[in-house]
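Input record, target 12 of the design panel.
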């Protein structure tokens, strides 16, 4: 019998607020975990990752950028005194499952890894493996709703 997913909801009205939500979320995201980040272009997915990375001591927020062209950025940090690898992927430019093979996703999913994948919902294999999803939606203006579902 599978347990019900845990759902957390937040609202933000600025980039700084989105980063603050990411900082809060870091404590919930114990590895190993693969999460899909969904939301329209410009919704704030990378901004949320900036907050997670800073909370883990993996990178300063200005060092975290979207891996749109490199596909993967890897950072090293810690959570509760334990080393953690933060892998941030952006699959926007990919459109076929076979293109995922060259990424080495299996090798990324180590016991100390937190893997956050933007546009991962496009791929059935990633949806099947995901431990949850973070959805960011625009509520008008600069207001964003962040919904975190953890399986």
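The sequence produced for target 12 reads:
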């Amino acid at each position: 019998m599978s347990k019900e997913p845990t759902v957390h909801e937040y609202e933000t009205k600025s980039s700084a607020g989105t980063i603050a939500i990411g900082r809060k979320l870091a404590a919930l995201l114990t590895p190993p975990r693969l999460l899909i980040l969904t939301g329209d272009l410009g919704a704030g997915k990378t901004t949320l990752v900036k907050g997670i990375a800073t909370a883990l001591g993996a990178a300063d927020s200005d060092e975290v950028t979207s891996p749109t062209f490199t596909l993967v950025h890897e950072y090293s940090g810690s959570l509760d005194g334990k080393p953690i690898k933060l892998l941030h992927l952006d699959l926007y430019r990919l459109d076929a499952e076979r293109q995922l093979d060259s990424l080495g996703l299996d090798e990324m999913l180590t016991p100390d890894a937190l893997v956050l994948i933007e546009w991962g919902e496009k791929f059935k294999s990633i949806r099947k493996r995901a431990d949850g999803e973070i959805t960011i939606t625009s509520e008008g203006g600069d207001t964003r709703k962040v919904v975190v579902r953890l399986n």
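The chain has one domain: 14-150.
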